[in-house]
Amino acid sequence: MPPRLVKLGLLILVLLVFASLPSWLPVYWLRIATGVALWAGLALSWNVIGGYMGYISFGQVAFFGIGAYATGLLMNPPYNWPFAPTIPVGMVVAGIVAAIVGWPTLRLRGAYFAIATWAFAEAIFQLATVARFTGGTPASSTRPTSTTSCWLPP
Amino acid sequence: VNAEVGVQYTLLAFFVVVLGGLGSILGALIAGLFLGVMQALVTVYFSADYTLLVVFAILYLVLLVSPRGILGRGAA
Predict the structure, then answer these.
(1) Reported pTM
(2) CB–CB contact A116 B22 (8 Å)
(3) How far is CA A121 from the centre of its chain?
Protein backbone atom coordinates (compact mmCIF):
# COMPACT_ATOMS: atom_id res chain seq x y z
CA MET A 1 0.00 0.00 0.00
CA PRO A 2 1.51 3.35 -0.98
CA PRO A 3 2.18 5.68 1.95
CA ARG A 4 -0.15 8.36 0.57
CA LEU A 5 -3.12 6.00 0.77
CA VAL A 6 -2.13 5.03 4.33
CA LYS A 7 -2.01 8.73 5.25
CA LEU A 8 -5.39 9.39 3.66
CA GLY A 9 -6.89 6.36 5.42
CA LEU A 10 -5.55 7.52 8.79
CA LEU A 11 -6.93 11.02 8.15
CA ILE A 12 -10.40 9.69 7.35
CA LEU A 13 -10.24 7.44 10.44
CA VAL A 14 -9.34 10.39 12.69
CA LEU A 15 -12.14 12.47 11.15
CA LEU A 16 -14.65 9.68 11.78
CA VAL A 17 -13.49 9.29 15.38
CA PHE A 18 -13.80 13.06 15.95
CA ALA A 19 -17.24 13.14 14.32
CA SER A 20 -18.44 10.30 16.55
CA LEU A 21 -17.11 11.84 19.80
CA PRO A 22 -20.31 13.73 20.76
CA SER A 23 -22.37 10.54 20.81
CA TRP A 24 -20.30 8.55 23.29
CA LEU A 25 -17.86 10.81 25.18
CA PRO A 26 -18.74 12.13 28.68
CA VAL A 27 -19.55 15.84 28.72
CA TYR A 28 -16.38 16.78 30.61
CA TRP A 29 -14.08 15.09 28.11
CA LEU A 30 -16.21 16.36 25.25
CA ARG A 31 -15.50 19.90 26.44
CA ILE A 32 -11.77 19.15 26.54
CA ALA A 33 -11.90 17.61 23.06
CA THR A 34 -13.72 20.73 21.83
CA GLY A 35 -10.96 22.87 23.32
CA VAL A 36 -8.31 20.76 21.60
CA ALA A 37 -9.97 21.23 18.21
CA LEU A 38 -10.52 24.94 18.89
CA TRP A 39 -6.95 25.78 19.87
CA ALA A 40 -5.49 23.51 17.19
CA GLY A 41 -7.46 25.49 14.61
CA LEU A 42 -6.19 28.78 16.03
CA ALA A 43 -2.61 27.47 16.06
CA LEU A 44 -2.93 26.34 12.42
CA SER A 45 -4.19 29.77 11.40
CA TRP A 46 -1.15 31.29 13.09
CA ASN A 47 1.09 28.82 11.30
CA VAL A 48 -0.07 30.13 7.92
CA ILE A 49 0.88 33.76 8.61
CA GLY A 50 3.66 33.26 11.15
CA GLY A 51 5.20 30.02 9.96
CA TYR A 52 4.89 30.15 6.18
CA MET A 53 4.86 33.91 5.60
CA GLY A 54 7.14 35.05 8.43
CA TYR A 55 4.85 37.77 9.76
CA ILE A 56 4.68 37.91 13.56
CA SER A 57 0.98 38.48 14.13
CA PHE A 58 -0.84 38.91 17.42
CA GLY A 59 -4.11 39.68 15.69
CA GLN A 60 -5.35 36.13 15.06
CA VAL A 61 -7.53 36.11 18.15
CA ALA A 62 -9.46 39.14 16.91
CA PHE A 63 -10.68 37.25 13.82
CA PHE A 64 -11.19 34.15 15.96
CA GLY A 65 -13.45 36.22 18.20
CA ILE A 66 -15.28 37.90 15.30
CA GLY A 67 -16.15 34.48 13.88
CA ALA A 68 -17.26 33.26 17.31
CA TYR A 69 -19.46 36.32 17.85
CA ALA A 70 -20.99 35.88 14.39
CA THR A 71 -21.94 32.32 15.30
CA GLY A 72 -23.21 33.33 18.72
CA LEU A 73 -25.31 36.25 17.46
CA LEU A 74 -26.90 34.16 14.71
CA MET A 75 -27.79 31.32 17.11
CA ASN A 76 -29.43 33.63 19.64
CA PRO A 77 -32.77 35.40 19.21
CA PRO A 78 -33.99 37.03 16.99
CA TYR A 79 -32.24 34.81 14.40
CA ASN A 80 -32.27 31.39 16.13
CA TRP A 81 -30.23 29.66 13.44
CA PRO A 82 -29.12 26.07 13.94
CA PHE A 83 -25.40 25.65 14.61
CA ALA A 84 -24.16 24.19 11.31
CA PRO A 85 -25.07 27.04 8.89
CA THR A 86 -23.53 29.63 11.21
CA ILE A 87 -20.04 28.19 10.65
CA PRO A 88 -19.63 29.30 7.01
CA VAL A 89 -21.19 32.67 7.86
CA GLY A 90 -18.70 33.16 10.70
CA MET A 91 -15.85 32.18 8.37
CA VAL A 92 -16.96 34.64 5.69
CA VAL A 93 -17.48 37.50 8.17
CA ALA A 94 -14.07 36.94 9.81
CA GLY A 95 -12.46 36.60 6.37
CA ILE A 96 -13.96 39.88 5.12
CA VAL A 97 -12.84 41.75 8.24
CA ALA A 98 -9.39 40.16 7.97
CA ALA A 99 -9.11 41.21 4.32
CA ILE A 100 -10.10 44.81 5.12
CA VAL A 101 -7.71 44.97 8.08
CA GLY A 102 -4.90 43.08 6.39
CA TRP A 103 -4.82 45.26 3.28
CA PRO A 104 -3.18 48.25 5.05
CA THR A 105 -1.65 46.32 7.96
CA LEU A 106 0.37 43.84 5.92
CA ARG A 107 2.41 46.74 4.48
CA LEU A 108 4.06 47.24 7.85
CA ARG A 109 7.22 45.28 8.59
CA GLY A 110 8.84 43.50 11.51
CA ALA A 111 8.10 44.80 14.99
CA TYR A 112 5.69 47.47 13.74
CA PHE A 113 3.49 44.83 12.12
CA ALA A 114 3.49 42.82 15.36
CA ILE A 115 2.57 45.89 17.41
CA ALA A 116 -0.11 47.03 14.95
CA THR A 117 -1.81 43.63 14.95
CA TRP A 118 -1.60 43.54 18.72
CA ALA A 119 -3.14 47.01 18.98
CA PHE A 120 -5.91 45.93 16.59
CA ALA A 121 -6.64 42.78 18.59
CA GLU A 122 -6.72 44.77 21.85
CA ALA A 123 -8.99 47.38 20.26
CA ILE A 124 -11.40 44.64 19.17
CA PHE A 125 -11.22 43.14 22.67
CA GLN A 126 -12.05 46.50 24.24
CA LEU A 127 -14.83 47.00 21.70
CA ALA A 128 -16.29 43.62 22.66
CA THR A 129 -16.34 44.59 26.33
CA VAL A 130 -18.07 47.94 25.78
CA ALA A 131 -20.38 47.19 22.83
CA ARG A 132 -24.03 46.52 23.59
CA PHE A 133 -24.58 43.63 21.15
CA THR A 134 -21.77 41.44 22.52
CA GLY A 135 -23.23 41.37 26.02
CA GLY A 136 -20.26 43.25 27.51
CA THR A 137 -17.91 41.77 30.07
CA PRO A 138 -20.21 38.88 31.12
CA ALA A 139 -20.31 38.00 27.40
CA SER A 140 -23.08 36.31 25.54
CA SER A 141 -23.79 32.62 25.45
CA THR A 142 -25.75 30.60 22.97
CA ARG A 143 -28.63 28.35 23.81
CA PRO A 144 -27.36 24.85 24.56
CA THR A 145 -27.54 22.26 21.84
CA SER A 146 -27.82 18.59 22.71
CA THR A 147 -24.48 16.81 22.53
CA THR A 148 -25.49 14.42 19.77
CA SER A 149 -26.96 17.07 17.48
CA CYS A 150 -24.31 19.73 17.94
CA TRP A 151 -22.89 19.31 14.44
CA LEU A 152 -26.14 18.37 12.73
CA PRO A 153 -29.12 20.60 11.99
CA PRO A 154 -31.75 19.85 14.65
CA VAL B 1 -1.16 47.78 45.48
CA ASN B 2 -0.19 44.31 44.31
CA ALA B 3 2.59 42.65 42.34
CA GLU B 4 0.86 43.21 39.00
CA VAL B 5 0.12 46.90 39.45
CA GLY B 6 3.13 47.91 37.36
CA VAL B 7 2.08 46.01 34.25
CA GLN B 8 -0.56 48.46 33.08
CA TYR B 9 1.81 51.42 33.40
CA THR B 10 4.65 49.56 31.66
CA LEU B 11 2.26 48.58 28.89
CA LEU B 12 1.05 52.15 28.48
CA ALA B 13 4.66 53.39 28.47
CA PHE B 14 5.42 50.87 25.73
CA PHE B 15 2.51 52.14 23.65
CA VAL B 16 3.72 55.69 24.10
CA VAL B 17 7.20 54.70 22.89
CA VAL B 18 5.78 52.92 19.84
CA LEU B 19 3.44 55.80 19.09
CA GLY B 20 6.35 58.24 19.24
CA GLY B 21 8.59 55.97 17.20
CA LEU B 22 11.09 53.50 18.70
CA GLY B 23 14.24 55.38 19.71
CA SER B 24 12.82 58.88 19.34
CA ILE B 25 12.88 60.89 22.58
CA LEU B 26 10.94 63.91 21.30
CA GLY B 27 8.39 61.54 19.76
CA ALA B 28 7.88 59.78 23.09
CA LEU B 29 7.36 63.14 24.80
CA ILE B 30 4.74 64.26 22.28
CA ALA B 31 3.05 60.85 22.13
CA GLY B 32 2.85 60.67 25.94
CA LEU B 33 1.24 64.10 26.15
CA PHE B 34 -1.13 63.25 23.29
CA LEU B 35 -2.24 59.88 24.70
CA GLY B 36 -2.64 61.27 28.21
CA VAL B 37 -4.78 64.18 27.05
CA MET B 38 -6.87 61.89 24.82
CA GLN B 39 -7.46 59.49 27.74
CA ALA B 40 -8.57 62.36 29.98
CA LEU B 41 -10.85 63.83 27.30
CA VAL B 42 -12.51 60.47 26.58
CA THR B 43 -13.01 59.82 30.30
CA VAL B 44 -14.67 63.20 30.80
CA TYR B 45 -16.79 63.44 27.65
CA PHE B 46 -17.68 59.79 27.01
CA SER B 47 -17.01 57.11 29.62
CA ALA B 48 -14.04 55.57 31.40
CA ASP B 49 -14.94 52.29 29.66
CA TYR B 50 -13.88 53.71 26.30
CA THR B 51 -10.39 54.99 27.21
CA LEU B 52 -8.49 51.80 26.36
CA LEU B 53 -10.51 51.34 23.17
CA VAL B 54 -9.56 54.85 22.06
CA VAL B 55 -5.90 54.32 23.04
CA PHE B 56 -5.61 51.13 20.99
CA ALA B 57 -7.55 52.58 18.08
CA ILE B 58 -5.24 55.61 17.99
CA LEU B 59 -2.16 53.37 18.23
CA TYR B 60 -3.40 51.19 15.37
CA LEU B 61 -4.40 54.07 13.11
CA VAL B 62 -1.17 56.00 13.71
CA LEU B 63 0.86 52.89 12.89
CA LEU B 64 -1.08 52.50 9.64
CA VAL B 65 -0.66 56.13 8.57
CA SER B 66 2.88 56.64 9.80
CA PRO B 67 4.58 53.34 10.66
CA ARG B 68 7.56 54.96 12.38
CA GLY B 69 5.63 56.94 14.96
CA ILE B 70 3.88 60.28 14.85
CA LEU B 71 7.05 62.14 13.92
CA GLY B 72 8.20 59.46 11.47
CA ARG B 73 11.59 59.29 13.17
CA GLY B 74 11.48 55.81 14.72
CA ALA B 75 13.97 53.05 14.01
CA ALA B 76 13.03 50.72 11.17
Answers:
(1) 0.77
(2) no
(3) 14
* Residue pLDDT, tens place only, A8-35: 999 999 989 888 888 888 888 888 888 8
Instruction: Catalogue the long-range contacts made by A20-27 (C-beta closer than 8 Å, 24 or more residues apart).
Output: A22/A147, A22/A148, A22/A150, A22/A151, A23/A147, A23/A148, A27/A147
CB A125 within 8 A of CB A63: no
| 8-state DSSP, A147 | G
Residue B56 and residue B44 in contact, taking contact as beta carbons nearer than 8 Å: no
Rounded to the nearest angstrom, the minimum Cα separation between A138 and chain B is: 14
Choosing among B60, B61, B70, which should be mutated to test the A contact, i.e. which has the most A CBs within 10 A? B60
pLDDT tens, position by position, A132-146: 776 665 555 665 554
C-alpha B54: how far from chain center: 10
Q: Which helix (H) or strand (E) holds A141?
A: none
| Average pLDDT for chain A | 81
Q: Who has greater pLDDT, A31 or A77?
A: A31
Closest to A114 measured CA to CA, from A105, A123, A127, A103: A105
Q: Which residues contact A65 (CB under 8 A, 6 or more apart)?
A: A124, A125, A128
* Rg, C-alpha atoms of chain A: 18
Asked whether B69 and B17 are in contact (CB, 8 A), the reply is no
Closest CA to A67 of A89, A100, A85, A82: A89
Provide the ipTM: 0.77
Which residues in chain B touch residue A104, judged by CB atoms under 8 angstroms apart?
64
